[in-house]
């Protein structure tokens, strides 16, 4: 059964997205030397697109389509050349570095995991081994792909 959209749900999303935006803008400013206000505006644009996608996902009756599809479609549409807002949207969102977003996301995942440590303990040693295998495999194959991409492009 699909959870209905409520004003409390939207307000919670807005709060989380605002906190995430400020943290990412600070990360962009400190780590990548992007201007703080431009990064913040870029994050707000990304958050508005995300919020619209989340709302659409709750309002439409299709249970099998995840919100990321709607978010991606909205982002694609507003970045198309015929969209009157495309130029400023692309300018400001280009001031947001992916690594700063990933850092905050992983920190949040770590806090969420630490909060639910009791459930993690129930997984047992098999789950821990699988988790480490997945992380190591992902890291290793990402490094291999990056290595060959750098060779292919002539950077190394």
In short:
This protein is an all-alpha fold. It has two domains: 7-115, no CATH class; 117-156.
Can you give a write-up of this model?
This protein has 156 residues and is mainly α. The protein has two domains: 7-115, no CATH class; 117-156. It contains six helices and no strands. The N and C termini lie far apart (52 Å). The model has no long low-confidence stretch (mean pLDDT 86).
Write the layout of secondary structure elements.
Elements lengths: L6 H26 L3 H24 L7 H13 L6 H8 L4 H18 L1 H37 L3
Tally the beta strands: 0
Largest sheet: none
Number of helices: 6
Rg is: 19 Å
Q: What separation lies between the terminal Cα atoms?
A: 52 Å
Question: Which structural class do the helices and strands define?
Answer: mainly alpha
Query: Approximately what portion of the residues adopt beta-strand conformation?
Result: under 5%
- What shape does the CA trace take? globular
Give the rounded overall mean pLDDT: 86
Give the helix proportion (percent range).
over 70%
Q: Helix and strand string, N-terminal first?
A: HHHHHH
Uncertain segments of ≥5 residues (pLDDT<50)? none
Number of domains: 2
